TrEMBL record:
Residues 4-61 form the HTH lysR-type domain. Transmembrane segments: none annotated. Pfam families: HTH_1, LysR_substrate. SUPFAM superfamilies: Periplasmic binding protein-like II (SSF53850), Winged helix' DNA-binding domain (SSF46785). It comes from Streptomyces salyersiae. The keyword Lyase does not apply. The keyword Transcription applies. This is LysR family transcriptional regulator. Belongs to the LysR transcriptional regulatory family.
């Protein structure tokens, strides 16, 4: 029977994800020569060629991709086994490390922790790692977190065998206007009504993409007057009359300090950003992770009902 070495298979998977031997070595805290040696040994164990030279880089062969398709099922089964063993050893409490983007922490994670704290049985110990939405899957892949909250725009496809991705909520986007703006009290405000306004949003990353996509769907390309990624800075500039901005409901609910900002709900063509939870495939069956996911769903359902 062919010998399957899980450690070496993880190195091969990391090479597929990272693209180069050097990046793989950095991610796994190994030397490039050690990575190459381990993969050479794996190829010998399996009796197939796994890598081919492509200029100064290497590429995975068809045989390597075939091996990885089966390896992903092995990794998922090991996650399930680890989750069950952890549940057995620690009961349903255990520890769950949650990676979440900034607005998800006060809006979803903290209320979920409070729910768990008020249950009759001991709840899991939740440890929070704040990270940008785009980085959540890097942390999950590296094993630095057990559960990641991210945006659907950054989620892997349903065909990605490494993760189980679960939709949580559609977070409405409201328009932030200076209180003295001519449209601050206008009835039936539409996004298209703001086509000629100066806009404030990030220069790159998810929020830039979400803002431009929402405006383009409304029929215009927003003129970016100012670039900022933090909601406190964005709302401060709106309050000063420097422009308008799209703000997620989850963010505005936890930054109420700007009395000079009028938050307007778009009754028509209201854009949303979609929040998802992700775990390594198989880990969702672990008692502690399952309880945290259930608490997050309860908070998300309440948030949607209040929107």
């Amino acid at each position: 029977m062919t010998e399957w070495d899980v450690k070496k298979l993880r190195i091969l998977r990391t090479l597929r994800d990272r693209g180069t031997v050097t990046a793989t070595a950095e991610a796994l805290l190994m030397t490039p020569s050690a990575v190459s040696q381990q993969l050479t040994n794996l190829a010998g164990q399996l009796g197939v060629t796994l890598l081919e030279a492509q200029g100064r880089r290497v590429r995975l062969t068809d045989a390597a991709h075939l091996v990885l398709r089966h390896a992903e099922a092995v990794f998922a089964q090991l996650e399930r086994a680890d989750a069950e063993l952890t549940g057995y050893l620690r009961g349903e409490a255990g520890q769950v490390r949650v990676g979440a983007f900034s607005t998800a922490v006060p809006a979803l994670v903290v209320p979920a922790v409070r729910l768990l704290a008020h249950e009759d049985r001991p709840g899991p110990e939740v440890r929070v790692h704040e990270a940008e939405a785009a980085r959540a899957y890097e942390l999950l892949t590296a094993g630095d977190v057990d559960l990641a909250l991210s945006l659907a725009a950054h989620a892997p496809t349903a065909r990605d065998p490494r993760f189980t991705v679960l939709p949580l909520l559609a977070d409405p986007l409201d328009v932030a206007l200076p209180v003295g703006h001519r449209l601050a009290g206008a009835p039936g405000l539409r996004l298209a009504d703001l086509a000629g306004e100066p806009w404030i949003f990030g220069g790159s990353g998810p929020w830039s993409q979400i803002t431009t996509a929402a405006c383009e769907a409304a029929g215009f390309v927003p003129e970016q007057a100012h670039s900022a990624s933090g909601w406190t800075a964005i709302l401060a500039m709106v309050e000063a009359g420097m422009g308008v901005a799209l703000v997620p409901r989850m963010a505005s609910a936890f930054d109420p300090s700007h009395a000079g900002v009028a938050m307007r709900v778009l009754e028509a063509d209201r854009p949303h950003r979609h929040v998802v939870a992700a775990v390594r495939r198989g880990a969702e069956q672990g008692p502690a992770v399952a309880r945290v996911l259930a608490a997050l769903r309860r908070v998300a359902d309440t948030t949607v009902q209040q929107s």
